[in-house]
Design a protein that fits this description.
D-Amino Acid Oxidase, Chain A, domain 2, 11 helices, eight-stranded mixed β-sheet, FAD/NAD(P)-binding domain, five-stranded antiparallel β-sheet, alpha+beta, 20 strands
Length: 414
C-alpha cells in the first residue's frame, strides 16, 4: 500500500536534511520522508566543497544570500559545536594582488560592513606579518570565517532526523513524479510515496525534478566543475588561515583560494570550468544527452557571448598545468608546480536565465503542491539551517498552517 506523508524531500544534501530538521523541530507530528539517490548523505555538492563557513562578506546587501549568510554561519558553528562536528573559527584574508583590484576590495569592505561582518583593512606590512608567503598590495581581514566538514554535518543531521522520527531513504532516486487527487506521487525503486508537499532539493538535478513534477522552472541548471589541488607535505606552512583573491563582481565564483583544512591538508582551488555531465567530475565525464540539449539551448549561446573570455581562461588553466601554477603564484609566489598535486573536484549546480545570465542569488520557486530550490550556491551550506527554516515556513503555508509558518519565519529571523 502506498505511503502517504505530509512532506517528501527529494535530495539528501545539507539543504534537504536541514529542511527536514526545521519542519520536524517546528511540528514533531509531521510525517517527513527524505529521498537520496546515492548510497550516502551529502554525496555531491555538500561533500565536494571547500568546507568554509562563510561570513557574508561578498553578497549584495538586501539579497537573500546576504540576509541568510551572516546569521546562518553562526547557527552552523553552534550546530557543529553541539553535535560533535569539527569546527574552527579561523578568519581569512582577501588579498588584492594588483593596484587595479583596490576599488573591488573597497566594494567588498563596504558590502561586508553593510552585512554586519567584521572587516579590517590590511596594508603590505600587515599582510607580511600575518601571512609572510602571501603577496598583496592590500587585503581585508575577515574575522567571522570558520572551517568545518560538511560531509560530517550531513551525517550528524541524518542521525538527528532519525531521532526526530523522519523516514530516511538512501539509494532511492525519484524515478517518476505524478499527481493523484490532492497529493504528489513520487515513485522510487522500492515504493510509491504520496505527499501533500514536495520539496525539491535535488541540486544538480533540481530543474529536471521540477519538470518531472509538471512545473516549468524559472531557471535552468548548468553544471560547472571546480577542480582542486593540494599542497604537498613540507610546504603546507605557506599559509596559516584561508587566503582568497579579490573576486570578479560580475561572476558568482570566488576564484582560486588557498585553504588549510582541519585534517592538516591545504587545498588550492576551485576553478570554474564547464562540466559536460551533471556529475561531471572529470573532463572525460560526458553526458551526450545533456550536451546535445545544452548545444541547442539559447541560454548557452547567451552565456558564451557574455563570459567567453573568462571561460577560455579558466579552461586553459585547467588543461595546461603551468598556467594554473602561474595563477596560484599570484597569491603565493614561493609555490612551484612540484609543490602541488591534483586533488579531486566538485560540481556546482549553477542557475542560468533564459538569456544566459548567471544567477547569483538563491532561487526558490513555489507551485500549489511543490517548493523547488533551483539555485543554492555558496553560501548555501553555510546558511543551510536558516534556509531550511525559510523553506519549512513555506511548507507550513502549503499545508495551510499560516500561524506555524509565521512562527517559523519569526524564529529564523530572531
Amino acid at each position: 500500500m502506498p505511503q502517504t506523508v505530509d512532506v517528501v524531500i527529494v535530495g539528501g544534501g545539507v539543504l534537504g536534511l536541514a529542511t527536514a530538521r526545521a519542519v520536524l523541530r517546528a511540528q514533531p507530528r509531521a510525517s517527513v520522508t527524505v529521498l537520496e539517490k546515492e548510497d550516502r548523505w551529502g554525496a555531491h555538492q555538500s561533500g565536494h566543497n571547500s568546507n568554509v563557513i562563510h561570513s557574508g562578506l561578498y553578497y549584495r546587501p538586501g539579497s537573500l544570500k546576504a540576509r541568510l549568510a551572516r546569521a546562518g554561519g553562526e547557527a552552523m558553528i553552534r550546530y557543529c559545536e553541539q553535535h560533535g562536528v569539527p569546527v574552527e573559527r579561523t578568519g581569512k584574508i582577501v588579498v588584492a594582488t594588483a593596484e587595479n583590484q583596490l576599488p573591488r576590495l573597497e566594494l567588498l569592505a563596504e558590502r561586508g560592513r553593510a552585512n554586519g561582518v567584521t572587516v579590517r583593512r590590511l596594508g603590505r606590512g600587515e599582510i607580511a606579518e600575518r601571512e609572510p608567503h602571501v603577496a598583496g598590495v592590500a587585503a581585508l581581514s575577515v574575522a567571522e570565517t570558520a572551517m568545518t566538514d560538511f560531509g560530517q554535518v550531513c551525517r550528524a543531521l541524518a542521525t538527528e532526523l532519525t531521532e526526530l522520527g523522519a523516514t530516511l531513504r538512501t539509494g532511492a532516486p525519484a524515478l517518476g513524479i505524478g499527481v493523484t487527487g490532492e497529493t504528489t506521487v513520487v515513485s522510487t525503486p522500492g515504493e510509491e510515496i504520496h505527499a501533500r508537499v514536495l520539496v525539491n532539493c535535488a541540486g544538480l538535478h533540481s530543474d529536471e525534478i521540477a519538470r518531472a513534477a509538471g512545473d516549468r522552472p524559472t531557471v535552468r541548471i548548468m553544471p560547472f566543475r571546480g577542480e582542486y589541488t593540494e599542497i604537498r607535505p613540507g610546504r603546507r606552512d605557506v599559509v596559516s588561515n584561508p587566503v582568497y583573491p579579490v573576486p570578479d563582481p560580475d561572476l558568482p565564483f570566488l576564484g582560486v583560494h588557498v585553504t588549510p583544512m582541519l585534517d592538516g591538508g591545504v587545498h588550492v582551488g576551485p576553478n570554474a570550468v564547464p562540466a559536460f555531465a551533471r556529475e561531471g567530475y572529470r573532463w572525460r565525464d560526458v553526458d551526450r544527452r545533456l550536451l546535445a540539449r545544452l548545444l541547442r539551448d539559447p541560454a548557452l549561446r547567451g552565456l558564451t557571448r557574455r563570459y567567453w573570455r573568462y571561460g577560455v581562461a579558466e579552461m586553459s588553466r585547467s588543461l595546461f598545468w603551468p598556467l594554473y601554477v602561474r595563477e596560484v603564484r599570484k597569491l603565493v609566489p614561493s609555490l612551484e608546480g612540484r609543490d602541488l598535486r591534483r586533488h579531486g573536484s566538485g560540481v556546482r549546480a549553477q542557475a542560468v536565465t533564459d538569456t544566459g545570465e548567471l544567477v547569483d542569488d538563491f532561487v526558490i520557486d513555489h507551485t500549489p503542491r511543490a517548493i523547488h530550490v533551483l539555485n543554492a550556491p555558496s553560501p548555501a551550506a553555510t546558511s543551510s539551517l536558516h534556509i531550511g527554516a525559510h523553506i519549512a515556513a513555506d511548507v507550513f503555508s502549503h499545508l495551510g498552517d499560516e500561524d506555524l509558518a509565521r512562527a517559523v519565519r519569526d524564529s529564523a529571523a530572531a
